[in-house]
Amino acid sequence: MNTITPSSLLAMRTQILQQNSALQKVAGAAAAPAPAQAAPTDFSTTLKGALEQVNGLQSKAEAVSSSYERGETTDIAAVMLAREQASVGFQATLQVRNKLLAAYKDIMSMPV
Question: 39 lies in a domain?
């Protein structure tokens, strides 16, 4: 059984970063240059944006459902679509949370 040492982890990290930069160079050469480059975002900003998007979907679904219940809207398909979009977004968020917690537990249980 192979044991994972800090030096082997650093070597794997370096190898992954080198492969990533090589892939980015290849992808950059194949794609046309973008007129304006967006600033890189960190993980917390991306996660916050995704959570805000899911919250927006849930708010929209609630508003459409309330509108239907009041009789202002008669399109049941739009109501069901909005509710399903909110449900799928929420389920995806739960799966991401579960994967993050599992990764955190794995990292915390690693011997130093």
Answer: no
pLDDT tens profile 62-107? 999 999 999 998 889 999 999 999 999 999 999 999 999 999 999 9
42: three-class secondary structure by DSSP = coil
What domain range includes position 61?
47-112
pTM value?
0.57
Q: Tell me the backbone φ, ψ of residue 33, rounded to 5 degrees.
A: -65, 135
Q: How many domains is the chain built from?
A: 1
Q: Encoding tokens for residue 1?
A: 């059984």
Give the DSSP H or E segment for 41: none
Task: Report pLDDT for 69.
Answer: 93
CA distance 76 to 92: 24
Report the distance separating Cα 67 and Cα 82, nearest Å. Answer: 12
